[in-house]
Each structure stands twice: as C-alpha cells, then as structure tokens.
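FORM 7B: Structural annotation worksheet

SECTION A. Query
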Amino acid sequence: MTSDGRVREQRPHLRGRRAARNVVRRCDYHNLNNPFASANVFSEDHVTAIHEAALQVLQELGMKVLLPEARQIYAAGGAIVDDASQVVRIGRDIINAALKSAPRSIELIAGARHRDLTLEIGRLTFQSGAGSPYVNDLVRGRRAATLGDYRDLTRLIQHFDVLHMLNPLVEPQDIPIHLRHYHVTEAQLTLSDKFPFVYSRGTPQVMDCFRMIQDFRGLSFEEFEAAPHCYTIINTNSPRQIDIPMAQGLIDFARAGQMSIVTPFCLMGAMAPITIAGALTLSHAEALAAIALTQLVRPGAPVCYGAFASNVDMKSGAPAFGTPEHVKANLGSGQLARLLGLPWRCAAASAANINDAQAANETQMSAWGAVLAGATVIIHGAGWLEGGLTVSYEKIITDLEVLQTFAELCAPTAAEDADIALDALREVPPGGHFFGAAHTMERYQTAFYQPLVADWSNFGTWTENGSKSATERATTIWQSIVRDEPAIAVPPERCEALSEYITKRTQDGGAPPES
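SECTION B. Predicted structure
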C-alpha cells in the first residue's frame, strides 16, 4: 500500500515496457491469507506423540534457566526449581494453562494504521533476512555492516509492501553495542511506518526502546501497554537452556503487553537430535517453556510460537538450509503449531556464499516449506546468505520476486462469465490468435504480474542491453530505491525530541547489554 493506505500500483520496475499511463494493475500485498492446504509430514498420532514427549522433557528433564527472577516466576507458578543447578521442571498443568491464556489472534499496531497486522493461523506475513554481522553487494563487496547499511536496508524494507515487518536486519558494527539500540530504533521510526523490532539485550535497553516508541508515537504508557506496538525475537539456547537476556526479554515484553516471538534454533546432529522428530521434540519443549514464562508473567500476553530447525553438514558441522530435512522440519513444526492453535513463526534460509542458483534454490525451497506449513510469520525470506552471517542487497531484490509471487498466489482468481471468456473464444477462429481480440485488448495492461527483476526479453535484446544477470539488474534496482525512496511523513518535532533523547542517553553512558 501507499503511504495514504491505497493499494500499491504494481508496475514493472525500471523496465522499458511500462503500463500505459493511468492504467495500472492493483494488488494488495499487505493482507495475505494463505490459500494452500497445510501439508503434513507426520500422522496425527505422531504429532501427538511429539507433543507428549516434549511435555515429558519439561516435566522430567527440565530447562536450565539462568535468570534468577525467571526461576522465581516459574516457582510461583508451580514449577519445581533447583537453584543450585538452575534447572526448572515444568509440569503439564502449567503448560496447559499457558496455552489456554496465550492469544490465538494478535493485532499489531504499526506506525501507520494501514500497516497494522493480524497474526493468526491462516494469515501470512514476510520478513527479510535478519541479525547478520555482514552485508554484501556487487558495488562494495562483503564487509562489516554499518549504521548506514541498516538505514539503507530499512529504506528497502519500507519500499516493498510484501515485507510486512521490520526486524534486526544487520548489526551496525560501527556503533558500540551499548548505544546501538538507540540508532537502530531511530532508523526504524524515522525511515519506516511498519511494525518495529526491539532487541532483547537486557531491561535497560528494552526500556529505552519502549520509551522511544511511546514518545515518538505520542502514546501514553497505558495506551502502549494496551496493544503490541513492537516485538522481539527470543532464541532459546538449545539444548534446553534460556539465558539471562532472553529470559529477561520474555518477562519485560510480557509485562508491557508487547509481543515476543519465541524461536528455538535447533540444528539436527549439533544442538538437537539428528532425527527430524527428535529435533522437533526439543524445539517444541523449549518453545513451550518460554511461552509458559510469558503467561505466568501476564496471562494473555501476546506471544508467537516459533520453530527454526534444519540439519548440518556432518562433514564440517556447518548449517545447511533448503534441504529436504529443513522442509520436513518446517512442515512438522506447522503441525505442532496447529495443534496448539497459536500464530507461529517459521523461516526460509540459505547457506550459499553468494547470490547464485544455490542461494535461490535453498531460499525458495525453505520458503515453500514454511508457506505449506501454514506459518504466520516467515523470517529470512529475502536477502539471507551464509547461514545468516550476511544480508545481500541484491539477494533481497531477487528473493522479492518469489515473495511477490507468493503474494499473488494469495489473491483470489476470478472465474466470472467475463473471465471464462466465451466472447473471446467466439471471436477467434481455429488456428487464430488472441493478441488482438477485444477481450485481450481490454485487459492486457493489467492481466499479468510484471516482474521486479526477471528479464523476459529474447536473447538478442538481452545481449543488446548488456547481457546482465538477475543479480546485476538487482543492483540497479536497490540503488535507485535507496537513492530515490521518498521519506515518510514524520512530525519534525518528534524527530527532534527523539534525537535529543538519544543524545542525552548517550551522554549518560547508554545502556550496556545484560548477560
């Protein structure tokens, strides 16, 4: 959608052939309902068995929880806590109560209200690759990410409606970590009106970000707590551990009514059993433990179930993505999420080192697994390389072709009388063609999706235009967006107040992360 809430006009980007003026194809890439029947990899009995095994893991083996306050909350809720070992054993009654209070539908409030999102089973949202220390592009090569990169990538995310939420993107390594959250949050608030992300690196940083969002959006504390205005991602430390910043994040976000997306990262054969079912049993147990903590803090706190499981290369130990095992793990995670009834997060990913055929295949296969699994939020859908070490500017663009295709598949397909086209069939004789038919002439400018980066020209024309690969064409596209993307409408006084807050907090020493 555009900044005033209209459905974005879908035109070819930087192509010689453009739709005629004032004749455009209108597509809604924001409100996506997954049209595909969920694919299963396990029988219902097997799904139940995995769930029961996860409950047994929590009750008998427990979770190591490093934060004393979190252990106290678990204990107050009825869990058996051994402070000496830091192990918390969580009974199924605690889990069942948490699953009963956790919301099935979560309304997210974005900076602009037409960017609001609903997370529930059956809805579909996409995010770009996230959390990488490096960036890559054809102009400057692979390098440590900077705040400038974070800002430019945020402009790209803002530009494309099929990327629905902001996220960590890259780690700006030119900004010290005790100050980084200020500048990342400022970039999100001033360069985008989409739903923002907040790091969970300890209470001081979280409270800083909450304050920045409240003030910038003009919200009272009560208004902020009444609905999610931001979210965080919580990664457990597989196997069976929740560290201090992650446990504190679960508590801080639940108390403030903000959303946590709980995502164990289980690599089969490394931090998880080597079998898909075993890895999902561990992942499910860890997710349930974290969800339970949010509900013990505040029943009804917005929380998403999450799963990110794949295999490793057993020759090197390196993570692998887009593999058959990764796809099957996505499908199995979807079955477990549907058993719970909670909105949930899954992931696409690639372990390739450059934006090549391997990268495209891995991301697309894993994305298909997440879509067919019925994921509510699919992260790392565009731009991820090297198993998450790098976000590629060009890969964001080439992957967006796939995400926009998914969005097109979510749209209903018309089959009214005019679409069935009997008049056209009567007009064109056997052996004729439909290029000049009245039915075609009325619709040709808006009938088909126009590619973002694909080149449909013949070999001669492609050669005359420089024989550019999709990756090379993607460079031109991202550069034009970063250079020309119009700024969002932001009250100047709010920008000034935000800048003053950051200056003051920096002078005060910032907020070191907790560990």
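SECTION C. Observations
Residues 12-410+449-515 form a domain with the TIM Barrel fold (CATH 3.20.20.480). The chain has one domain: 12-410+449-515.

SECTION D. Sign-off
Analyst initials: ____
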